[in-house]
Design brief:
The protein is mostly helical. It is about 60% helix and about 5% strand.
């Protein structure tokens, strides 16, 4: 009996407290808007319910601004309490039609996935509630009004709480997933844009010039980058939702990749700008997204292990020509140079050794938010990152268009160019003279940047 009385007292105290808060505003001739959740039973709040309450509050605030409902935010009060979380904010009646505000807040409730448990109350400056006369449907059955089911005790507290808990949990998970996927997609787009914006680059297209490429320019890459964004999101979604074996996902990644290639070729009028990136980001975004969807989150070692699992035996399976079909460029380079000529497949099969060789530690130390304010500094940092990758990457683009001697010469020049402007000029000139472009290294720079953003910016 004592326990019951305690609960009843707590709920009544909370109600009284809310009325008092409202009264304070009425005394100053102010109307109020308040938010609470309609949770049956007791306690009406816990950390889990509060996180949902805060989420709704975060959604309500821009809704009010968008509808030009001006509230006095400096006077808002937020209470977290076992008897129910509560938010109240006053507003002046002089400039807005209070009936219209009520109608708008009802729209907010009606269009929200869990609107049936959200209560937004509007009181006028006399402290009287504004009602549209509409009756909220019951949260549980939706058949009768909420008040009717409550008065007739149609549902038990247990079944109501169970349903509410599971729906809040699904909702928070859904919101978290949406936020994570959107951020990850924007990191991927940013990494691609950073790579193309690094200027000048040896043999590669940049804002400065088109390097060794006569058929494309900076804007071809912008068109291509913009066309990829929806597919980058699809890679992330696939990873977030995936529950099968990693060894079996490659077909699904490539299926998205092929559609991305089609969009890219349309955007560039049949020029290959980002085929390598589509494959590398497909595997990378899948893996990152899968890791962040799990409790432990992202870390380099797990990421590399996952990429290696997904791409296991890729070199043997895809570069050894065992049929009578025409031999591809990739196969030709592999026949000639062995594992050194395995290109991007060799790189992923080994978990991105060129990316993790030096660029990650270097970006960690130098590519901080501070450096973002200085364009020359950021160009220098990106250039160093690219050179570090070029110094070790056995770029099959170079091997295909040239030979091993040229590749080794470029690797040596790239290493020197990290600390020498003269060597950097020599490297640029050499690439132009030989008409070659280290496209594979540029793709890996984008991967390196993506991983850096994932680790250093809030996901
Ligand atoms: Zn009902």
């Amino acid at each position: 009996m004592d326990k019951k009385k305690e609960i009843l007292d707590s709920v009544l105290d909370a109600r009284e407290n809310r009325a008092l808060l409202r009264y304070q505003f009425v005394e100053n001739n102010l109307c109020t808007l308040s938010l609470s959740l309609n949770i049956p039973g007791y306690p009406k709040s816990n950390p889990f319910i509060t996180s949902f309450f805060n989420e709704v509050l975060n959604e309500l605030k821009p809704f009010l601004i968008a509808n030009r409902i001006v509230v006095q935010n400096n006077k808002k009060i937020v209470l977290t309490h076992k008897a129910g979380d509560f938010f109240i904010v006053p507003f002046s009646n002089s400039s807005i039609d209070i009936i219209k505000i009520k109608a708008l807040t009802e729209t907010f409730e009606e269009t929200h996935l869990l609107g049936r448990i959200i209560d937004i109350d509007i009181f006028n400056e006399q402290g009287l509630p504004i009602s549209s006369g509409k009756k909220k449907p019951c949260y549980f059955c939706g058949e009768y009004s909420a008040i009717s089911c409550m008065r007739n005790k149609r549902h038990t507290y247990d079944e109501l709480r169970k349903k509410i808990n599971s729906e809040i949990s699904n909702y928070l998970e859904f919101k978290n997933k949406e936020l994570t996927i959107n951020k990850l997609t924007s990191f991927a787009t940013k990494a691609i844009l950073y790579e193309i914006s690094l200027s000048p680059k040896p043999g590669l297209v940049s804002f400065h010039d088109s390097g060794s490429h006569a058929d494309m320019n900076f804007f071809t890459f912008l068109n291509s980058s913009a066309s990829l964004t929806p597919f980058l999101k699809e890679f992330c979604l696939l990873g977030y939702n995936y529950s099968g074996k990693y060894e079996e996902v490659l077909g699904q990644i490539r299926h998205i990749g092929l559609r991305a290639e089609k969009a890219m070729f349309e955007a560039t009028h049949t020029i290959n700008t980002h085929k390598g990136i589509i494959f590398l980001f497909g595997v990378s975004l899948f893996s990152i997204s899968k890791l962040v969807s799990e409790k432990e989150g992202y870390n380099d070692a797990e990421f590399r292990a996952m990429v290696m699992k997904i791409c296991k035996n890729m070199v043997a399976n895809e570069l050894v020509n065992t049929t009578n079909k025409a031999i591809t460029n990739g196969e030709k380079v592999y026949v000639k140079y062995g594992i050194m000529g395995a290109g991007v497949r060799g790189e992923v099969e080994q978990g991105f050794p060129s990316v993790f060789h030096k660029s990650q530690a270097y970006f960690e130390e130098n590519l901080t938010s501070f450096s973002y304010t200085n364009q020359h500094e950021i160009q220098h940092i990106l250039q160093t990152g690219l050179l570090q990758i070029m110094a070790v990457n056995n770029d099959s683009n170079i091997l295909h268009r040239s030979n091993l001697e040229t590749l080794i010469h470029i690797q040596t020049l790239a290493k020197k160019a990290i600390d020498s402007k003269i060597a950097f000029t020599q490297l640029n000139e050499y690439c132009l003279a030989k008409n070659i472009s280290p496209g594979g290294s540029a793709d890996l720079l984008s991967v390196a940047l993506l991983l850096h953003f994932v680790k250093n910016e809030k996901l």
